[in-house]
Amino acid sequence: MEKTTIYQIAKKAGVSPKTVSRVINNEPTVSKETFGKVLKVIEETNFFPNISAQRLSSNRLKSIGLIIPRLGSPYASEIISVILGKCKRCGYISVVYPIENNEKESKKILALYLERHVDGFIFAPPGSDDKVLLDFLEKRKVPTILITPNKPYHDFYIVKATDRMGGLQATNYLIGLGHRKIAIITCMPNRTFAKERLAGYKEALVSHDIRLNKSFIQKGDNSFRSGFLATREFMSLVDKPTSIFASNDEMALGAESAIYKMGLKIPDDISLIGFDDITLVSELSVPLTTIKQPVEEIGDVAVSLLIQLIEKKDIGKKVYEIPTELVIRSSCKKLV
Questions:
Q1: Which class is 163-293 in CATH?
Q2: Which class is 6-58 in CATH?
Q3: How many other CB atoms are found less than 10 A from the CB of residue 96?
């Protein structure tokens, strides 16, 4: 049987071979009428394998847009790795786009969908709170999943960790070791997950009749430097804490650096616990006890939900919370 060529498709559809090529590559420059005419000939002649024809006719590309915070952060690296792996196993490709919240970046993201490069989006913070962008996607009913947004956003589906429980787990663990002077370095105060981790810390203190000492609360911004500076403030107090809960591992690494630069040792002189369980912290000279954020499960659930939305399947609940887990290593000491 003679193989159908792109030139034969073009002749039957009454268009140029270049136009057929544009349709095959799903380019946005082709009008809807021409796109449909060429697609009809492609299907009639069985020019593509079935799967390709189905993708064109359904206008699905099997491509997911992953919108993440700055590249280089351990969180970004791990969530990318998990989602890329899950997408690949499900037969989807991923378009990774790191952004900061601003109008120029938002327009670039919109173009990904308008130019038919992706079927839907997964947003990790801070992109998960871009109102202009999310309003646009909602109006056009674009399949979208938000990871740890700052607040529920209309009808989008949400996947997040149990951050309040994580704060409670970390503080309860230190209390169980005999600590009552427990300091905390908070994450960005305007973020819901940061507020929830702080709320878990406070809840644990209240449940054990430990007075809240405002001097034991320092605001961080998720960075190594903010953890370093906050720890120096704690250790300059007359009444020093015996333990520090850093609300993310990057700040815990900064705290560790400050402690060693002051000539102190972990956990002999002060105990330290983090949050996230990024890969690096298990390889430290004193491996860090931390709260494991279930990045793998979050990524897995986010991709599964998005594919269901893309395939127009019914999904039950709107918010999916994945439990955090205490990972005990060597950075916390039991007080006598």
A1: alpha beta
A2: mainly alpha
A3: 15
